[in-house]
């Protein structure tokens, strides 16, 4: 292929029709046309799926590589899903086919069946993604039809079809006859598509290439007598054409060259193929060298893959309309709801225009660090002949001087030279600049051009209203939120590791941009027009879950560490850097491999200091469960035992603060503030598991809902998109369907808040009978008059926010080990606040109190007179409560603070009255192993608290696929241990899956005789939940109840034993 000149590449960049953005830059001669390929390689490990996301966003197509032996792996599914979500077209390369011949020793017929199965598996994933999309569109269409049918009268017609029959999906699937599949063995240098063999055999046999193309893959065979291609090879026991014409030739080549080493046959094959093999290769002791020499000329893998890429992958001009709309529709906003000027930009996307008046639209998918020495402007230029002569003379002169001078003088001179020279070198070494990895979607990007940087929350409608018409990025606009300006100081062509400086880059190309490190953190949208919306955020498959605290070996180097972590945060799309309340610098990564790479980068590239990392900080969650029915040895619990177990923690707390805290047997906690001005009654109930999962998966919807409610409370008018309202209504309907039963009656309407951080998987319920507060779902009923009337009647009470703040604090750190709560519902049953009226009215607190109570067992016996008195005064006092009196409405006063603390403590005590459990983060683990090492794999999983879900044998191989779940806490060193125990024959893939309740009670102690027999007097067998809880408490510096020495005996020294 040879090296291509920069001028040729710049010329090719101006023709987007012949550009293919898929993944190292190369110039390819393909027939009469020249193509420019931008090849972006991405790592295959599941921890680095964020790198796949950044690459996929900039591409129009993708090459998906699948192992011929292992078939579809979890990462294959993740890659296909990412390609689908970004609307880019994939092509398939089935690699390592040599392993089917040499390792598995399959016949050509068996290999054909095996390859068919792999294609079926890959197509099944694509089919699933396609089906889910069609069904979603169908559901949306039905919603619209339902609304129309409500207005029309007459008989209803039901359509039971799913809509899949009408849609053509044939172009989505991988099929060799479509030309989007290449079979290859990269290690031996060969690869082919069916087109190549169709062309070869059409010339030899006189059959049309089009006919062969359709029949080479499939159930077709050659009838030698009739000289016709016929269908039904499998039924008639005939060899399919693919086996006869393609695989048999490859199998016989391997047999002659590698297995038998038959020199005569090899020479015949070489002569028949018309290729030349060097004598050195023929004599080589390793047969693979000869095989590679033959195959790389007969079926070169590069030619097969590049031909498929040029013919089957789209150019930037072929961008789908759907993809352009998807990129421009941020969050819950629909494309139709965007301003007119913004919608017009869709044509700029589709035309991929490089005209002068075309708007510039660029997306930066990631920032990567480059040493300043690697920049083209700092590269050492080649010396001229005169300069070489001059330098040689200078070197000779220095050598002569050094020899003549005294030895000591020479040493001191050398020292001074090294001291002087080392400083600028050190300074240079520290300099790492960031280059933005980007793609131009429209317009021409020029060196030094100023553009708008659009933040992820930028609203083009607001921007257009605030920016004067005709204003460009050179007139910097500071007052528009989430909009800033920057200058593209330098443009680079990415030639593998090399960078070439460019003056301008037209639309459709991938490039590097220098000078954006101050404006762009990880990814951003750049545009010359404020009408451009920010692109939708990247889809990351891996969730950052593994945390470590990092500190420098020498405390004086802390500033270098802080700077290094800031650079790492910018360079890695998935890593997160936090500073905890304790002052620790925490690094959050996707997994163990990712963590190791981040620490190495920090040590060697960004901070360049010795660092020490803590043991991984494992996240846990705290929850409550329903009272258990059996004890630890599966004996049924009596009612008295249940009560005793539930209230183990309650009794000491009652004795400690009985004057302000009251806990009744039903689990209702009543707590009064120290000033006796406020009382709250709270009960904790476990949420159903489905509800917890729903809240966790819809955290973005809940966050949006909270933002809308906040704006409505502040009196701001909001234009909420239809999609957002549909998502909120959908969440409400799902909650309604899941929260069934007497205790959850009308619970969804009574939701007060979500927590922690206002969007977590815990709920605060308003069970205070006489307090009707505005619903959290009020945005859904804004158009309804009855809803408006209801919302006017429902007014927020003073200190309403204090109750929410107390709940948020309680859910952020639970009582077990200060970890966030999950799946807990706190019901506020009663809430009394004493009125702080002016002095002349403060005759008695009983007369001026606002009492709001629900049905609670301990409050039923109150006298009817007090209740009547409260009811009589309620109307007048509720009006007084609405007036902004300086004392009562002071949200930052002492009552507010005490109420927050009281609510937090009430929630914690209510939590402790229920059976408490820890929740552990779980990985799904997929392991491929041979039958011999299966037992060892199970041994490692069992030792690490893993649980096997299912295992199956991969057909046609001796490999087993084991699917298991493993706690994140036990996963460190798991992959290494598996490899060591199985001698590298098994390799696991770990992906974060879900949170799971640890069944054992951390506070449990043996009480019955059976439990003493089973667990020992002090529960000698380790309580896993207690072990985890104590580890977290110890790390956080909390009190841990454990004995350092137990059953100690007097030590005998060696001297006394003599």
From TrEMBL:
It holds the Pfam family GTP_EFTU. Gene3D superfamilies: 3.30.230.10, 3.30.70.240, Elongation Factor G (Translational Gtpase), domain 3 (3.30.70.870), P-loop containing nucleotide triphosphate hydrolases (3.40.50.300), Translation factors (2.40.30.10), Yeast translation eEF2 (G' domain) (3.90.1430.10). SUPFAM superfamilies: EF-G C-terminal domain-like, P-loop containing nucleoside triphosphate hydrolases, Ribosomal protein S5 domain 2-like, Translation proteins. The keyword Phosphoprotein does not apply. Residues 857-888 are annotated as: Disordered. GO terms for biological process: cytosolic ribosome assembly. Keywords: GTP-binding, Hydrolase, Nucleotide-binding, Ribosome biogenesis. Residues 1-317 form the Tr-type G domain. The keyword Mitochondrion does not apply. One of its GO terms (cellular component) is cytosol. Signal peptide: none annotated. One of its GO terms (molecular function) is GTPase activity. PANTHER family: ELONGATION FACTOR-LIKE GTPASE 1, TRANSLATION ELONGATION FACTOR-RELATED. This is Elongation factor-like 1.
